[in-house]
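From: lab user (bench 3)
To: helpdesk
Subject: output format question, protein + magnesium ion

Hello, I'm new to running complex predictions and I'm not sure whether the block I got back is the full result or only part of it. Here's what I submitted:
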Amino acid sequence: MEETIVKLAIQKSGRLSEKTIELLKDCGIKFVSNSSRLKTQAFNFPMEILFLRDDDIPGYVEDGVADFGILGMNEIDEKAKDVTVVKKLGFSKCRLSIAVPNATEYSSPKSLEGKKIATSYPTILKNWLKSVNVNAEIHEIGGSVEIAPTIGLTDAICDIVSTGGTLLSNGLKEVDQIYKSEAALIVNKNLSKEKSAILERWLLRLEAVQVASNNKYILMNVPNSAIEKVCALLPGIKSPTIIPLKDEGWSSVHSVINEDDFWTLIEQVKAAGAEGILVCPIEQMIK
Ligand code: ATP
Ligand code: MG
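Helpdesk reply: Thanks, we reran it on our side. This is the complete output you should expect:
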């Protein structure tokens, strides 16, 4: 029987490509990524990788030309194709915002009533305008949206912002954030049983990578008299590991901690008597 191979569409080159390739490699999927190739096959996972423009990925996944795709939520919602969003991936975070020339007064979305707005995201903008009950004229343009007010085309723009530097250099100010985006994994709605099984295998790895990146492995030396106190502070997957040191009266305590609690926890265990604290990254974590 022929082996089932899934097709994953990713961005060929742009703001998503590097992180997407890094994520696949962190999942242990090995392949040659050469910028001149349009597709490549993984050596050690039944996956073919297609390198495409991000705009085309939702359509290809809907049609089943690709089984899976990785791209920004902004592009997924804008294209509004019939695909399933399986997982948000936490990178390429950005927002879609309304910006107006510095001199323009803006107090609420109502300030946009009857105005012209340039954007490359007409669907998302239309939905937002509807939700705030404002009528405005949408001008769809493909790129360089931020110059539209300067050249007199529109009164405002709706565009992707990450730091706001581009707006500033075009004499614009950000006045309303209308949408938040990050990269996500989309999947074709009619996957075969075999392809769904491959997706499950991949999802296990994706989850392990995501959980690992939010956690740290911590080791510390603790006088035996303080072990109870220190262990009460540590979560661990089941419970902390305790190994006696050669020096009598001391132990090495190991645990896994969440990155968010990191500094507070370090201060607390130190105050409780821990010394020589080491914090290490975790590559994978399977619960
Ligand atoms: P393509 O040639 O594939 O069509 P593109 O020019 O449409 O690429 P990029 O500029 O590479 O797109 O951005 C791809 C995606 O990365 C965007 O749709 C958005 O989700 C995200 N993104 C865009 N700008 C930023 C940013 N400044 N910071 C982080 N993520 C961003
Ligand atoms: Mg694009």
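A quick orientation on your result: Helices lie at 17-26, 57-63, 73-79, 122-131, 165-169, 193-213, 227-233, 262-271. Let us know if anything else is unclear.
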